[in-house]
């Protein structure tokens, strides 16, 4: 087989099949996608895009995006193997987004929410000035519109390419959560694999309810870094969602199949007026249909 034919064969295989990194089962890609990108054998949750997440969680045609045109600058003229500007261009080419957070307003089973969803494929979902600004705008929008705030985080932490500017976003996001508390606006934080660094060390663990997907990696530094610093082996499952749940650091672990329904239940509990409004809407619709 020629080299070109081998490359074509490899691409063809990647398009049709996917291997689970946990149980090593090889599955038909379409079957995994129909299962919300969850392994049917071991329940491993593959990473999904921000768009897929929005489509899964929000009611059809209810999402209205805001601040999509905000773009990062290059305050440090940063360059490692390639320049920061080139990395931003690559992130946009890969995801079609201008930055690592998609934000807007939508409905979860009839409950109107302000929502932010991280896109890990854009520079590892890292939090720079634009992401921090969009989180704060989500907070203001939630307060002005009196809607609960839901943020689904999947991030490698603060964006090193922006130096101290990115670290400032941690304080900025925390101040946003303090504002929500002042106005009694509920905040639900959902942790998807992975949530590390400055995101984990700031707003992500300040939700009124903190939810994680199964087996999500959650923590400040990665396990390898901690092991090297402590010179000892870490416990089994360290920094996984189940490990943190057992120790009371998160409130619930919810499979992707159940997340929309459970989120709606939490929202009804935290924001009872939303359930009342939704039931009234259904009741009125029922009266119209019967007339």
Salient structural properties:
2-enoyl-CoA Hydratase, Chain A, domain 1, 9 strands, 291 residues, 16% strand, 7-stranded mixed sheet, globular, single chain, two-stranded antiparallel sheet, disordered N terminus
Textual characterization of the structure:
The protein is an alpha/beta fold. It has two domains: 1-46, no CATH class; 47-271, 2-enoyl-CoA Hydratase, Chain A, domain 1, CATH 3.90.226.10. The protein has eleven helices and nine strands. The chain has helices at residues 3-16, 29-34, 50-57, 84-95, 129-145, 164-182, 197-200, 223-230, 241-246, 259-270, 272-290, and strands spanning 17-19, 26-28, 64-66, 101-108, 111-118, 149-155, 187-195, 209-212, 252-253. Strands 3-4-5-6-7-8-9 form a seven-stranded mixed beta sheet, with helices on both faces. A two-stranded antiparallel ribbon has the order 1-2. Helix 10 crosses helix 11 (272-290).
């Amino acid at each position: 087989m020629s080299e070109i034919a081998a490359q074509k064969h490899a691409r063809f295989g990647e398009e049709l099949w996917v291997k689970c990194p946990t149980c090593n089962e090889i599955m038909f890609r379409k079957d995994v996608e129909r299962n919300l990108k969850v392994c049917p054998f071991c329940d491993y949750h593959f990473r999904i895009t921000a768009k897929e997440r929005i489509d899964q969680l929000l009611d059809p045609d209810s999402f209205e995006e805001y601040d999509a045109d905000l773009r990062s600058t290059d305050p440090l003229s940063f360059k490692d193997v390639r320049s920061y500007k080139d990395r931003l261009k690559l992130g946009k080419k890969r995801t079609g987004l201008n930055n690592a957070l998609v934000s807007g307003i939508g409905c979860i089973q009839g409950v109107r929410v302000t929502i932010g969803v991280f896109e890990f494929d854009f520079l590892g979902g890292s939090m720079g000035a634009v992401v921090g600004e969009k989180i704060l705008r989500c907070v203001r929008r939630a307060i002005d519109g009196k809607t609960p705030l839901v943020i689904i985080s999947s991030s490698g932490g603060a964006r090193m390419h922006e130096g101290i500017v990115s670290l400032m976003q941690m304080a900025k996001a925390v101040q946003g959560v303090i504002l929500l508390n002042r106005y009694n606006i509920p905040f639900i934080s959902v942790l998807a694999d992975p949530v590390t660094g400055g995101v984990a060390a700031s707003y992500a663990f300040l939700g009124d309810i903190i939810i994680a997907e199964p087996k999500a990696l959650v923590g400040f530094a990665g396990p390898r870094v901690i092991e090297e610093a402590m010179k000892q082996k870490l416990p089994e499952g360290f920094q996984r969602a189940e490990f943190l749940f057992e120790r009371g650091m998160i409130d619930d672990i919810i499979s992707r199949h159940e997340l929309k329904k459970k989120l709606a239940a939490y929202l009804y509990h935290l924001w009872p007026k939303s359930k009342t409004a939704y039931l009234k809407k259904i009741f009125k619709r029922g009266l119209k249909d019967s007339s």
